[in-house]
Amino acid sequence: MKKQKSIPAVKKEIVLNKKLKYGMLLVFGVYLFLLTSYKAAGDDDMFWHLSTGRYIAETKSVPSADVFGYITEGNPWIPIEWAWDTVTYLIYSAFSYEGLSVLRSIIVLAMFFVLYLTLKRLKLPASVIVVSLFILSIGLFERYSIRPHLVSYLFTAIVLYIIVRLRYTAKPEGRLLYYFPPIFFVWVNFHQGVYFGLLLFAIYIIYEASGIYLLKKRRTEFPKDKLFIKILFAFFAVSVICLLLTPHTVDTIIYTYNHASMKMLQSINEWKSPFEPMFASELNIVFYKIFLFAGVIVLIQSIRKKVYFTAIVTVIFGIISTTGIRFITDYEIISSVFIFSSIYFLFTGRKYKQIQAAILSKPVTVYVIIALLAVVSYTIPNGKMYSGFFKEYKVFGLGIDRDFYPIKMFEFAKENNINETGSRVFNHYGVGGMFSWYFGPAQKNFIDSRNLSDEIFYMYDSLDYIKGNYEAKLRELGIDYVMYYVPVLFQRPEVMNQILVAHLSAKTDDWKLVYWDDISFIFVKNNAAFAEIIKKYEYKYLTPYNFGYRRQLITDAMKSDRELYNKELQRKLSEEPGGMIINTMAGTLR
To answer: In angstroms, rounded to a whole number, what is the distance separating the alpha carbons of residues 330 and 350?
Structure first.
């Protein structure tokens, strides 16, 4: 039988001067570090992960029931990413939020380094690899948040690298198989994306085994024998067993499945289809669709070379990616290796030989790449890359963006013991994690983005968007203070009239506004417990809601109760001198 040839086996690698190559890689590394060095903003998940890590570190136990919410207290909750929670809390304890930013950059750099090694294994020139990974870094930008999925992406890249080495090495490197069990053991305790890694491993084993046991032929350029296939199955079985090596063993798997089956996830953007019209113009979705379309090139090359492994992997993960935005990054990482190598080798025939020699083997090509990376890197610290290209609000630097997170609201609540004076809070969904980080687990939140049940989510939704008999529900739950987060308040003030803020602002006999800024509010119940706080901090006239919907009340107060109006104005200007809303008010109300 004629031995079939594989792309990596027959192509000669274009070699560059080592110093020049390493210089290019160093510049690319600096670019990646800068790209991922933006302050965390708008991601509340980070805070409940930290809260969980603190709880585990202090109690030396991993909970199996909720400890942070008063509605869901005692309900089943398994922190399936407990290892990430604990590690990030320990890093925070030593290096604060800045340490978490550096951790993110290190993980992303490690992932891209592994992808570089994988493409290098497939005989792509260093210059082609760097350009390819630069393109991928743009497509993945949306997913660089400080969350445990970063570890999952890194392990996905590592598993892919091992499989590529196993497939495209003349002598099977059996020692690589020993890495699989510890990888899956660590991975399952950091993130449930481990099942994608197991799927990738399974596809590889089934593909190799089918050639020997079903097709009765060795169809790869580096054939595997039956003994090697049996060894593969053995290591796969051990890897599966490793998925049970978590604090709650099989219960973790059951909980993960039940959580992924929740109806409310349909309301979360990352669980929605990437083909919904509302996402059509988003850059990460545009890049994903390009990668999805480019998968056709992998299929063409697979058919031409009669080596179908890359096509099978690309198709399977491509299909999975269409079911939810959260899965598109896994597809892009896995398929990118096959897409970039297929495109490169598609243009490596004899008629392209001179072009390759003229471009890829010349130092000037590397100098151009270095120059382009340097120019792009220069636009990152000044924010032009984030706002101009990505069209996103990002602030370059380490740590967290104190202007975007409602930190001042929480500091006010803490300084004035609002969390201890009140008994039950209604908090905005986007700050439930922060509430637990500041006050938990002693004080419980109403909800957070752990999404513990459909019931609590839909209850929150009815209260937040003032649906049905929401007033009776507020009384029934015994809620006596509200901490609300509206990050788009200045840009879209009309949302204020669609949410609970409108009700609380209008019911001034029952609720008092004691704190507000450009992005947040604190309302307290008008009762004896809060009497001192109300007396000292109530905003009677100068509120965003009054300014937007009851301005006559303010203008009347400027005449009939000028002293109190001025007191509120001066207090707010002193508290928030750079506040956009208060300065707009001050400039308008004259």
So the answer is: 35
